[in-house]
Specification:
With 133 residues, this protein is an alpha/beta fold. The chain has helices spanning 11-26, 56-67, 72-75, 93-99, 104-120, 125-132, and strands spanning 3-6, 31-38, 41-47, 78-84. Strand 1 (3-6), helix 1 and strand 2 (31-38) form a beta-alpha-beta unit.
Length: 133
């Protein structure tokens, strides 16, 4: 199988893929896909027949042995790690989201809305509580 990158790479994505090469070397039938969803989010999917019979939590423990070697600022950008067997692919909503991600446009709207709320809401909590009493 292979390691593939969707879209363009950057230094952070390259570091993630480099860390996952260690897993790939030990699991030659694994397929590893990755992409940067936005400026702070990297998504990774590993499809590996070796996951058969392995609980999902154990799968993550196995993978994080490779990823925990990355710097914290790189790890913090890993927003989605999907670990599936080939047989689990058709039933996985996470896999569907990986292949058809919600557009980044909505993330921008949410961030702008949150910023606007933070600008307009400037109340002193103790005074607000006193007003209610």
């Amino acid at each position: 199988m292979s390691i593939s990158l969707r879209g363009t790479s950057d230094n952070i994505v390259a570091l993630v893929l480099q860390a996952l090469r260690g897993y790939k070397d030990q699991h030659p039938h694994a397929r590893i896909d990755a992409y940067r969803q936005n400026s702070v989010s990297i998504r990774v999917r590993i499809i590996d027949p070796d996951f058969a019979g392995v609980r999902r939590a154990e799968r993550h423990e196995i993978l994080w042995r490779f990823l925990e070697l990355l710097p914290d600022d790189v790890q913090s950008q890993m927003s989605l790690l999907i670990l599936l067997t080939p047989e689990e692919l058709p039933m996985s909503f996470a896999n569907l989201e990986f292949d058809n991600p919600v557009p980044f446009f909505w993330s921008r709207i949410q961030v702008r809305a949150k910023e606007n709320i933070m600008k307009t809401v400037s109340l002193d909590l103790p005074d607000a509580l006193d007003a209610r009493l």
